[in-house]
Amino acid sequence: MAMPKRIVSVALYAGFLSSSQLIAEDEMIKSIMELRSDVETLYSQIDNNKEAYKSQMKSYALQISDNEAQINRQETALKLTKQNIEKMEKKLEASGSATVDLKPIIDEAVAALEREIKTGIPFKAEERIAALHQIKSDLENKNITQEKALALTWASYDDALRLTKEIGQFKQEITLEGKATMAKIAKVGSVMMFFATPDDRVGYVKKNGKKYDYVVTTDTTERDQIIDLFDALQKQIRTGYFTLPNALLTRGVNQ
User: Fold this and answer.
1) What pLDDT, on the 0 to 100 scale, is given for residue 170?
2) Burial label, 29 (beta-carbon count in 10 A; 0-12, 13-18, 19+)
């Protein structure tokens, strides 16, 4: 009778192993299904990211194309200013000796530059125009010679050209919502101009017909971009990659 007892024990042991294997297989299948679900989720996220990336790149490409077109128009206006300077130089060469009356040339040059300042970016426009008027006044009152007045006018043209390339932070009074306000100014050449007031309003200058408006931005992204620009200029960082609101200032060459 001992023999049957051993056979029963072996059979029970074999049944125990089969149950363990089944449990292991169930766990493995469950793990594989979870991994497959995770993989499918990752693929779905990758596809979504690809579409978002494509849309973002397309938007950037359109913005870059628009910015390049705007900058090209600004460069055309700058070339015309340089041509005016060259014409003025030729007139001076043709004038000959110092005994020639230079006042008509000076008056013409001052008037042309004043028109340029009035139609250009509103950066310290009143101060720059006042300086031109002072040259004319001093010449009228004979406080300075014609040669001195011509040199000062020429320096004003040089300053106007410098401003088209200069990037920096300044202070000036602006008219914001009908009130005169002292503000910090971030100027990017003659194509963009941003402002920040002591009461934490920030924004940019926008061309509106023949005049310029100061627009306060309420968009969080634009605010952060403008504030980052002021921080960089405060630290004397004038080169690098900056993401800025599309606030290009352009005008026709005859405006």
Assistant:
1) 93
2) exposed
